[in-house]
Amino acid sequence: MSVNPELQGRVFAPAPPYLVGREKVREFARAVFATSPISLDPDAARAAGHADVVAPPTFPVVIQEHTLAQLLGEPDAGIDFSRVVHGDQRFTYSRPIVAGDELTATLTVTSVKTLGPHAMVTASSEMLDASGAHVVTAVSTLVVRGGE
Amino acid sequence: MSAPQLDSLTVGDVVAEREFSLTRDSLVRYAGASGDFNPIHYRDDVAASVGLPGVLAHGMLTMGFAVQPVVDWVGDPAGIVDYQVKFTRPVVVDPESGAAVTVTAKIGALTETTARVDLTVTFDGATVLGKAQAVVKLG
Protein backbone atom coordinates (compact mmCIF):
# COMPACT_ATOMS: atom_id res chain seq x y z
CA MET A 1 0.00 0.00 0.00
CA SER A 2 1.37 3.40 -0.88
CA VAL A 3 0.16 6.92 -0.30
CA ASN A 4 -2.33 8.13 -2.92
CA PRO A 5 -0.80 11.18 -4.68
CA GLU A 6 -4.30 12.38 -5.57
CA LEU A 7 -4.77 13.31 -1.92
CA GLN A 8 -2.93 16.56 -2.66
CA GLY A 9 -5.38 19.45 -2.60
CA ARG A 10 -8.19 17.47 -0.98
CA VAL A 11 -10.32 19.46 1.47
CA PHE A 12 -12.19 17.47 4.10
CA ALA A 13 -15.57 18.22 5.66
CA PRO A 14 -15.21 20.35 8.81
CA ALA A 15 -14.74 18.25 11.96
CA PRO A 16 -17.47 18.52 14.60
CA PRO A 17 -17.04 21.71 16.68
CA TYR A 18 -14.63 21.35 19.61
CA LEU A 19 -15.59 23.16 22.81
CA VAL A 20 -12.44 24.21 24.69
CA GLY A 21 -13.01 23.39 28.36
CA ARG A 22 -11.25 25.14 31.24
CA GLU A 23 -10.25 21.89 32.91
CA LYS A 24 -8.96 20.47 29.59
CA VAL A 25 -6.73 23.52 29.17
CA ARG A 26 -5.44 23.11 32.73
CA GLU A 27 -4.90 19.37 32.26
CA PHE A 28 -2.99 19.96 29.01
CA ALA A 29 -0.99 22.81 30.57
CA ARG A 30 0.16 20.56 33.43
CA ALA A 31 1.07 17.81 30.95
CA VAL A 32 3.45 20.14 29.06
CA PHE A 33 5.04 21.46 32.27
CA ALA A 34 3.42 24.88 31.91
CA THR A 35 3.81 27.08 34.94
CA SER A 36 2.14 30.24 33.62
CA PRO A 37 -0.79 31.12 35.90
CA ILE A 38 -2.56 32.47 32.80
CA SER A 39 -3.05 28.86 31.63
CA LEU A 40 -3.88 27.52 35.09
CA ASP A 41 -5.75 30.15 37.11
CA PRO A 42 -8.89 31.88 35.74
CA ASP A 43 -8.38 34.86 38.04
CA ALA A 44 -4.82 35.37 36.79
CA ALA A 45 -6.05 35.03 33.19
CA ARG A 46 -8.75 37.66 33.73
CA ALA A 47 -6.27 39.96 35.44
CA ALA A 48 -4.17 39.73 32.25
CA GLY A 49 -7.18 40.73 30.12
CA HIS A 50 -8.38 37.30 28.95
CA ALA A 51 -11.92 35.93 29.29
CA ASP A 52 -10.65 32.68 30.84
CA VAL A 53 -7.52 30.49 30.96
CA VAL A 54 -5.36 30.67 27.80
CA ALA A 55 -4.34 27.41 26.15
CA PRO A 56 -0.60 26.62 25.83
CA PRO A 57 0.82 27.20 22.30
CA THR A 58 0.64 23.52 21.30
CA PHE A 59 -2.92 22.90 22.54
CA PRO A 60 -4.40 22.82 18.99
CA VAL A 61 -2.79 19.39 18.59
CA VAL A 62 -5.75 18.06 20.61
CA ILE A 63 -8.10 19.27 17.88
CA GLN A 64 -5.71 18.33 15.08
CA GLU A 65 -5.88 14.72 16.32
CA HIS A 66 -9.51 14.68 15.16
CA THR A 67 -8.78 16.05 11.69
CA LEU A 68 -5.79 13.76 11.15
CA ALA A 69 -8.04 10.84 12.11
CA GLN A 70 -10.24 11.86 9.16
CA LEU A 71 -7.20 11.74 6.87
CA LEU A 72 -5.93 8.38 8.15
CA GLY A 73 -9.45 6.96 7.88
CA GLU A 74 -9.96 8.08 4.29
CA PRO A 75 -10.52 4.82 2.37
CA ASP A 76 -8.32 5.71 -0.62
CA ALA A 77 -5.54 7.52 1.32
CA GLY A 78 -3.23 4.53 1.51
CA ILE A 79 -1.68 5.73 4.77
CA ASP A 80 -0.68 2.90 7.12
CA PHE A 81 -0.82 4.48 10.59
CA SER A 82 1.78 2.07 12.00
CA ARG A 83 4.30 3.49 9.50
CA VAL A 84 3.64 7.14 10.22
CA VAL A 85 6.30 9.32 11.88
CA HIS A 86 5.70 12.96 12.78
CA GLY A 87 8.10 15.04 10.67
CA ASP A 88 7.32 18.61 11.62
CA GLN A 89 4.64 20.76 13.16
CA ARG A 90 3.68 24.41 13.14
CA PHE A 91 0.99 26.56 14.75
CA THR A 92 0.19 30.03 13.40
CA TYR A 93 -2.21 32.12 15.49
CA SER A 94 -4.52 35.03 14.71
CA ARG A 95 -5.51 35.13 18.37
CA PRO A 96 -4.96 32.89 21.41
CA ILE A 97 -7.29 30.01 22.31
CA VAL A 98 -9.25 30.72 25.49
CA ALA A 99 -11.46 28.33 27.48
CA GLY A 100 -15.02 28.67 26.21
CA ASP A 101 -14.01 28.89 22.56
CA GLU A 102 -15.85 26.61 20.17
CA LEU A 103 -13.48 25.76 17.34
CA THR A 104 -14.26 24.12 14.03
CA ALA A 105 -11.30 22.60 12.18
CA THR A 106 -11.10 21.95 8.46
CA LEU A 107 -8.32 19.79 7.07
CA THR A 108 -6.65 20.37 3.72
CA VAL A 109 -3.91 18.13 2.33
CA THR A 110 -1.51 20.74 1.02
CA SER A 111 1.14 18.44 -0.38
CA VAL A 112 2.04 14.82 -1.02
CA LYS A 113 5.65 14.09 -1.95
CA THR A 114 7.36 10.78 -2.45
CA LEU A 115 11.01 10.22 -1.60
CA GLY A 116 11.98 6.76 -2.78
CA PRO A 117 9.85 4.30 -0.81
CA HIS A 118 8.73 7.00 1.64
CA ALA A 119 6.04 9.64 1.36
CA MET A 120 5.61 13.00 3.06
CA VAL A 121 2.08 14.24 3.56
CA THR A 122 1.55 17.81 4.70
CA ALA A 123 -1.86 18.53 6.21
CA SER A 124 -3.18 21.89 7.33
CA SER A 125 -5.98 22.18 9.91
CA GLU A 126 -7.55 25.63 9.90
CA MET A 127 -9.46 26.38 13.10
CA LEU A 128 -12.22 28.99 13.19
CA ASP A 129 -14.24 30.23 16.17
CA ALA A 130 -18.05 30.24 16.45
CA SER A 131 -18.22 33.58 14.62
CA GLY A 132 -16.21 32.17 11.72
CA ALA A 133 -13.08 34.16 12.55
CA HIS A 134 -9.68 32.48 12.14
CA VAL A 135 -7.98 31.48 15.39
CA VAL A 136 -5.09 29.19 14.49
CA THR A 137 -3.78 26.99 11.69
CA ALA A 138 -1.97 23.79 12.60
CA VAL A 139 0.29 22.36 9.88
CA SER A 140 1.68 18.88 10.27
CA THR A 141 3.97 16.86 8.04
CA LEU A 142 3.66 13.11 8.35
CA VAL A 143 6.41 10.88 7.05
CA VAL A 144 5.01 7.54 5.88
CA ARG A 145 7.79 4.98 5.77
CA GLY A 146 7.78 2.61 2.84
CA GLY A 147 7.20 -1.10 3.30
CA GLU A 148 9.95 -3.71 3.19
CA MET B 1 6.55 40.27 35.94
CA SER B 2 6.59 42.86 33.18
CA ALA B 3 6.84 41.87 29.54
CA PRO B 4 10.26 42.16 27.89
CA GLN B 5 10.84 45.30 25.81
CA LEU B 6 11.84 44.88 22.19
CA ASP B 7 14.31 47.76 22.23
CA SER B 8 16.25 46.09 25.02
CA LEU B 9 16.87 42.92 22.98
CA THR B 10 19.74 41.97 20.71
CA VAL B 11 20.02 39.02 18.34
CA GLY B 12 21.96 36.30 20.13
CA ASP B 13 20.69 37.13 23.63
CA VAL B 14 19.89 34.02 25.66
CA VAL B 15 16.51 34.81 27.24
CA ALA B 16 15.71 31.54 29.00
CA GLU B 17 17.25 28.19 29.93
CA ARG B 18 15.59 25.27 31.66
CA GLU B 19 16.03 21.54 32.24
CA PHE B 20 13.02 19.22 32.13
CA SER B 21 13.06 15.84 33.86
CA LEU B 22 10.79 13.41 32.03
CA THR B 23 9.63 10.15 33.53
CA ARG B 24 7.31 7.46 32.21
CA ASP B 25 4.61 9.16 34.30
CA SER B 26 5.09 12.32 32.21
CA LEU B 27 4.37 10.32 29.06
CA VAL B 28 1.22 8.72 30.45
CA ARG B 29 0.01 12.11 31.64
CA TYR B 30 0.65 13.64 28.21
CA ALA B 31 -1.05 10.72 26.45
CA GLY B 32 -4.20 11.33 28.46
CA ALA B 33 -4.12 15.11 28.05
CA SER B 34 -3.44 15.05 24.31
CA GLY B 35 -5.38 11.96 23.23
CA ASP B 36 -2.28 10.40 21.63
CA PHE B 37 -2.33 6.82 22.94
CA ASN B 38 0.25 5.34 20.58
CA PRO B 39 1.70 2.51 22.74
CA ILE B 40 5.31 3.26 21.68
CA HIS B 41 5.04 6.01 24.31
CA TYR B 42 4.35 3.67 27.24
CA ARG B 43 4.98 0.00 26.32
CA ASP B 44 8.54 -1.32 26.07
CA ASP B 45 7.42 -4.46 24.22
CA VAL B 46 5.62 -2.48 21.51
CA ALA B 47 8.54 -0.05 21.16
CA ALA B 48 10.95 -2.97 20.77
CA SER B 49 8.69 -4.73 18.26
CA VAL B 50 8.92 -1.77 15.85
CA GLY B 51 12.69 -1.49 16.25
CA LEU B 52 12.90 1.46 18.63
CA PRO B 53 15.67 1.70 21.25
CA GLY B 54 13.04 2.13 23.98
CA VAL B 55 9.87 3.95 24.92
CA LEU B 56 9.93 7.42 23.36
CA ALA B 57 8.53 10.73 24.52
CA HIS B 58 5.80 12.05 22.21
CA GLY B 59 7.39 14.55 19.84
CA MET B 60 4.49 16.85 20.64
CA LEU B 61 5.30 16.60 24.35
CA THR B 62 8.84 17.80 23.65
CA MET B 63 7.47 20.58 21.42
CA GLY B 64 4.96 21.43 24.15
CA PHE B 65 7.38 21.89 27.03
CA ALA B 66 10.24 23.34 24.98
CA VAL B 67 8.27 26.56 24.47
CA GLN B 68 7.39 26.96 28.15
CA PRO B 69 10.56 28.87 29.08
CA VAL B 70 9.60 31.34 26.32
CA VAL B 71 6.04 31.60 27.66
CA ASP B 72 7.41 32.39 31.12
CA TRP B 73 9.86 34.93 29.69
CA VAL B 74 7.06 36.71 27.78
CA GLY B 75 4.73 36.41 30.77
CA ASP B 76 1.65 35.29 28.79
CA PRO B 77 1.04 32.28 26.50
CA ALA B 78 -1.01 34.62 24.28
CA GLY B 79 2.27 36.29 23.29
CA ILE B 80 3.33 33.31 21.16
CA VAL B 81 1.88 33.93 17.69
CA ASP B 82 3.76 31.29 15.69
CA TYR B 83 5.65 28.19 16.75
CA GLN B 84 7.27 25.52 14.61
CA VAL B 85 9.66 22.58 15.00
CA LYS B 86 11.07 19.66 13.06
CA PHE B 87 11.37 16.37 14.90
CA THR B 88 14.91 15.20 14.23
CA ARG B 89 15.81 12.71 17.01
CA PRO B 90 13.78 10.71 19.52
CA VAL B 91 13.92 11.17 23.28
CA VAL B 92 14.21 7.73 24.90
CA VAL B 93 12.73 7.69 28.40
CA ASP B 94 14.31 5.11 30.70
CA PRO B 95 11.79 3.38 33.01
CA GLU B 96 13.94 4.09 36.07
CA SER B 97 16.06 7.14 35.38
CA GLY B 98 13.75 8.93 32.91
CA ALA B 99 15.26 11.51 30.57
CA ALA B 100 16.70 14.97 31.11
CA VAL B 101 16.03 17.44 28.29
CA THR B 102 17.54 20.92 28.29
CA VAL B 103 16.14 23.95 26.49
CA THR B 104 18.04 27.11 25.63
CA ALA B 105 16.08 30.01 24.12
CA LYS B 106 17.98 32.63 22.16
CA ILE B 107 16.85 35.66 20.15
CA GLY B 108 17.15 34.71 16.47
CA ALA B 109 15.66 37.75 14.76
CA LEU B 110 13.84 40.98 15.57
CA THR B 111 11.25 43.06 13.72
CA GLU B 112 9.45 46.23 14.86
CA THR B 113 6.79 44.19 16.65
CA THR B 114 8.10 40.67 17.07
CA ALA B 115 11.03 38.63 18.31
CA ARG B 116 11.88 35.24 16.88
CA VAL B 117 13.16 32.99 19.64
CA ASP B 118 15.25 30.03 18.51
CA LEU B 119 15.23 26.98 20.76
CA THR B 120 18.06 24.53 21.20
CA VAL B 121 16.62 21.37 22.72
CA THR B 122 19.14 18.76 23.79
CA PHE B 123 18.93 15.21 25.11
CA ASP B 124 21.86 12.88 25.73
CA GLY B 125 24.30 15.29 24.10
CA ALA B 126 22.41 15.82 20.83
CA THR B 127 19.67 18.15 19.64
CA VAL B 128 16.24 16.55 19.23
CA LEU B 129 14.38 19.38 17.47
CA GLY B 130 15.40 21.25 14.34
CA LYS B 131 14.31 24.74 13.27
CA ALA B 132 12.54 25.18 16.59
CA GLN B 133 11.33 28.77 16.41
CA ALA B 134 8.73 30.69 18.37
CA VAL B 135 7.61 34.12 17.20
CA VAL B 136 6.66 36.37 20.08
CA LYS B 137 4.62 39.54 19.74
CA LEU B 138 6.01 42.33 21.89
CA GLY B 139 4.59 45.78 22.51
Automatic annotation (TrEMBL), chain A:
Gene3D superfamilies: Hotdog Thioesterase. GO terms for biological process: fatty acid biosynthetic process. SUPFAM superfamilies: Thioesterase/thiol ester dehydrase-isomerase. Residues 9-137 form the FAS1-like dehydratase domain. It comes from the Bacteria. It holds the Pfam family FAS1_DH_region. InterPro entries: FAS1-like_DH_region (IPR039569), HadA-like (IPR016709), HotDog_dom_sf (IPR029069), UPF0336/Enoyl-CoA_hydratase (IPR050965). GO terms for molecular function: (3R)-hydroxyacyl-[acyl-carrier-protein] dehydratase activity. PANTHER family: HYDROXYACYL-THIOESTER DEHYDRATASE TYPE 2, MITOCHONDRIAL, HYDROXYACYL-THIOESTER DEHYDRATASE TYPE 2, MITOCHONDRIAL-RELATED. Belongs to the UPF0336 family. This is UPF0336 protein SAMN05216219_0268. It comes from Mycetocola miduiensis.
UniProtKB/TrEMBL annotation, chain B:
InterPro entries: HotDog_dom_sf (IPR029069), MaoC-like_dom (IPR002539). Pfam families: MaoC_dehydratas (PF01575). Residues 14-110 form the MaoC-like domain. It comes from the Bacteria. Belongs to the enoyl-CoA hydratase/isomerase family. PANTHER family: (3R)-HYDROXYACYL-ACP DEHYDRATASE SUBUNIT HADB, 3-HYDROXYACYL-THIOESTER DEHYDRATASE HTDX-RELATED. This is MaoC like domain-containing protein. It comes from Mycetocola miduiensis.
